[in-house]
Q: What sequence folds into this?
């Protein structure tokens, strides 16, 4: 199936939904917010935005989206999670709440708030595998990193391996498994549409 | 505040940026963080994008005032996106009187330890040393708040001097833009804190939105006078006129006590909600907290708001703003 103009949803329970909708609108898809099971049923792909993963996890359950979302992901619906979205897509999250739900769409262990508190939030240039036109400016906000990945997971970007990066050096911050993409950072905040374009290509090809 | 008061090396010097989302790389790479300055790695903290971006992540969420680690846990369990660590909620500050100051660092540490969501804390208006202390404690956001007794009746804190981001209150657009000029990375309506009376928050939200719409309808050459009248920088006024929104996230605060209050503020254009005394001064805090979270997400769906409004027990008792003598009104603090 190839879609000329796919419908891509943004999970709109909480977080920077608007920025993702705007980034998607730039890459020629129909972008719409998703808060209800019937809205989820209508999209060809879903973005899980930045925000608080504990809040989103709780609201997914309350508003009966958790199981429908798991089912769509199991059927192969393309998805992209940034920051909190990455935490939700992981098979396991460290430093989270024990009752937090994991969508288990990517075989990886992530650590929440791994880089530290807000004063440690930062921007940096990253080499991102498969993206054209050079390094990507990445904005990390109380971001997670990936501690470990399973064999089926492709690593797309790491924090530059430089002594100044300290414990963060070389950490995995962007991954893909099948049709599911995740970044620890927020491409929706920079006006650089390349990551969203990459995701939409996946949706079109799926 | 003089330059020497803050010191020249303790805090990285950020440059005022008017264009939140349009910031270019060269503009952002001005942070003086030592770790970055001495080598080629362009890893920078405390940029406007990082500070304003943090507020973007809180959107659609509820930030709750808490005075103990136990309350912080209840707030997190209920789905709060952040907590505000305080010694006394505004209703108690109002009842007990006296000078209200920054909270004890032990209390803030205890709350930071208790939860995984962001922790905010309040500094007095103009009290830049309280802000330095809060940054050193590792709080995620500082509220330069009229709820505490102002420390400076002329100047607000120069917020560009800090790596930690700030939220400030505003009653109108000019006040919001002056705070952004000083480096605020997030704005909230002031409302009248500690009353449970939402009328002032309504007034402030309507005022800010109406003034934005007015700017949008103006001719380019009328914006100069608008800036003068609003006592705000022309560049910011022009940006708001063009974008139809503030360059930072706008939350609401002050007097929100029910799910319907929160939903009304969202419908009036707030991007998220602060709830102060409204939760832990009510009959069943856990249930009310969760109900306000749900109503904030589904602010435009009356069926959901009706459902979550059932059986919440007693709301906070409340005070009508009209009955508070004007010198005792918190919203009048700040300028």
A:
């Amino acid at each position: 199936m190839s879609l000329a103009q796919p419908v891509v949803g943004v999970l709109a329970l909480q977080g920077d939904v608007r920025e993702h909708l705007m980034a998607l609108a730039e890459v020629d898809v129909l972008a719409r917010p998703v808060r209800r099971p019937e809205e989820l049923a209508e999209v060809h792909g879903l973005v899980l935005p930045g925000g608080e993963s504990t809040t989103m996890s709780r609201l997914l359950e309350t508003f009966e989206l958790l199981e429908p979302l798991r089912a769509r992901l199991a059927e192969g619906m393309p998805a992209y999670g940034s920051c909190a979205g990455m935490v939700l897509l992981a098979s396991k999250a460290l430093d989270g709440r024990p009752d937090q739900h994991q969508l288990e769409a990517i075989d990886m262990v992530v650590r929440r708030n791994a880089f530290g508190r807000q004063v440690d939030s930062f921007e940096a240039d990253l080499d991102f595998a498969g993206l054209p036109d050079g390094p990507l400016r990445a904005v990390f906000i109380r971001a997670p990193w990936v501690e470990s990945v399973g064999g089926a997971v492709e690593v797309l970007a790491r924090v530059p391996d430089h002594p100044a990066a300290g414990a963060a050096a070389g950490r995995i911050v962007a991954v893909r498994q099948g049709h599911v993409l995740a970044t620890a950072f927020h491409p929706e905040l920079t006006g650089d549409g390349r990551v969203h374009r990459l995701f939409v290509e996946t949706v079109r090809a799926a | 505040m003089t330059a020497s008061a803050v010191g020249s090396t303790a805090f990285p010097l950020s440059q005022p940026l008017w264009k939140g989302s349009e910031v270019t790389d060269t503009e952002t790479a001005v942070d003086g963080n030592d770790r970055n300055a001495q080598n080629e790695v362009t890893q920078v903290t405390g940029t406007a994008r990082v500070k304003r971006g943090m507020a973007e992540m809180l959107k659609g969420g509820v930030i709750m005032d808490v005075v103990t680690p136990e309350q912080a846990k209840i707030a997190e369990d209920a789905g709060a996106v952040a907590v505000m660590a305080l010694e006394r909620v505004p209703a108690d500050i109002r009842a007990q009187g006296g000078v209200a100051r920054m909270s004890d660092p032990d209390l803030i540490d205890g709350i930071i330890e208790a939860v995984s969501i962001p922790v905010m804390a309040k500094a007095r208006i103009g009290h830049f040393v309280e802000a330095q202390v809060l940054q050193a404690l590792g709080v995620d956001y500082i509220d330069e708040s009229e709820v505490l007794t102002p420390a400076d009746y002329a100047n607000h804190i120069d917020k560009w001097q800090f790596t930690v981001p700030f939220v400030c209150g505003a009653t109108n657009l000019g006040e919001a833009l002056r705070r952004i000029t000083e480096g605020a990375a997030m704005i909230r309506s002031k409302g009248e804190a500690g009353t449970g009376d939402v009328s002032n928050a309504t007034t402030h939200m309507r005022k800010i939105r109406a003034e934005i719409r007015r700017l949008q309808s103006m001719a380019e050459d009328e914006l100069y006078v608008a800036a003068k009248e609003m006592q705000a920088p022309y560049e910011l006024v022009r940006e708001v006129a063009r974008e139809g929104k503030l360059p930072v996230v706008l939350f609401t605060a002050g007097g929100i006590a029910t799910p319907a209050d929160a939903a009304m503020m969202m419908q009036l254009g707030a991007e998220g909600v602060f709830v102060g005394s409204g939760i832990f001064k009510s009959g069943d805090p856990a249930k009310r907290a969760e109900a306000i979270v749900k109503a904030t997400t589904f602010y435009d769906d009356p069926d959901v708001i009706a459902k979550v409004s059932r059986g919440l027990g007693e709301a906070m008792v409340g005070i009508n703003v009209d009955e508070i003598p004007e010198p005792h009104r918190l919203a009048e603090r700040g300028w």
User: Anything to note?
Assistant: Chain A touches chain B through 47 residues (CB under 8 Å). Residues 194-205 of chain A form the longest helix (12 residues). The two ends of chain A are 7 Å apart (CA to CA).
